[in-house]
Amino acid sequence: MNTLLRHKGWTWGFRTTILLYFVVLIVLPILGVYYNSFSLGFSNFAGSISDPIAWKSVLLTLKLAVIATVINVLLGTMIAWVLIRYQFPGKALLNSLVDLPFALPTAVGGLMILLLLGPGSLIGGMAEALGFEIVFHQPAIVIAMVFVTFPFVIRAVQPLLEELDASEEEAAYTMGATRSRVFRQVILPSMAPGMIGGGMLAFSRALAEFGAVVLVAGNIPGRTLVSSVFIFGEVESDNPVGAAAVSIILLTLSFLILWLINMLQMRGRRV
């Protein structure tokens, strides 16, 4: 087997297959989106981007994705801390449920939110009695984004906490450091790469969410219409150029975020 793997023909064929797979499934679709967005000229592209409904949908998506990311970083870090540092009944079940958003179709997640927080639900009815609504408004979009991006920060922080040397904490306590100081100067710097990397992945994923959002947003232009739903509407309206123009904004942002994550990880390995 080892002799076969060392054979130059096998190595060349294996690399070619991987590169071809990468080009066909990733590179060509991305190039296709860029090509279609500029297929009618730059002026048409600029017109599609400058459309008030289009750029308002992008700005709304960015704002709500940032809010969802902040919530995920805070909650995800705390949940990762509890799963690593504490023992309690049901811990294994909770740890398994963390990955549930990855397994469920996002439309199912949206339906769950709709049934749990909708006008006919107990929580939705209580919210209406207090004078505000959740579903078909921006809070529902944030909840949907938090749900689909929930595992990223947790799974990024957990291994860092597992690898944290307990002797560093013990040495800090021995030198008279308080718990808050140990957390700030010893534990937090160790968790920071996972919090940042997981947060960036969550933000990038929230930008593109469609299945959960479309069921709970209300899709009102300028108020609850996010960019992914806007893109779907443009395709349904037989305007693929306008859809591609908005798509490359999200695509470029996601690429820059992933590139930044990769750079941070490479710098962390060098350190």
Q: How would you describe this structure to a colleague?
A:
The chain is an all-alpha fold. It is 81% helix and 0% strand. The chain has helices spanning 2-6, 8-37, 42-50, 52-85, 91-97, 100-103, 106-117, 122-129, 138-148, 150-163, 166-174, 179-208, 211-216, 227-236, 240-270. The longest helix has 34 residues, at 52-85. The two termini are 37 Å apart.
Give the topology.
Blueprint: H1 2-6, H2 8-37, H3 42-50, H4 52-85, H5 91-97, H6 100-103, H7 106-117, H8 122-129, H9 138-148, H10 150-163, H11 166-174, H12 179-208, H13 211-216, H14 227-236, H15 240-270
Mean pLDDT: 82
Distance between the termini: 37 Å
The largest sheet, given as strand count, sense and whether it forms a barrel, is: none
Shape: globular
β-sheet strand percentage: under 5%
Question: Could you estimate the helical fraction of the residues in percent?
Answer: over 70%
Structural class: mainly alpha
Question: How many β-strand runs?
Answer: 0
Order of helices and strands: HHHHHHHHHHHHHHH
Uncertain ranges: none
Main location: membrane
Keywords: Cell membrane, Membrane, Molybdenum, Sulfate transport, Transmembrane, Transmembrane helix, Transport
InterPro entries: CysT_permease, MetI-like, MetI-like_sf, ModB_ABC, Sulph_transpt2
Pfam family, one: BPD_transp_1
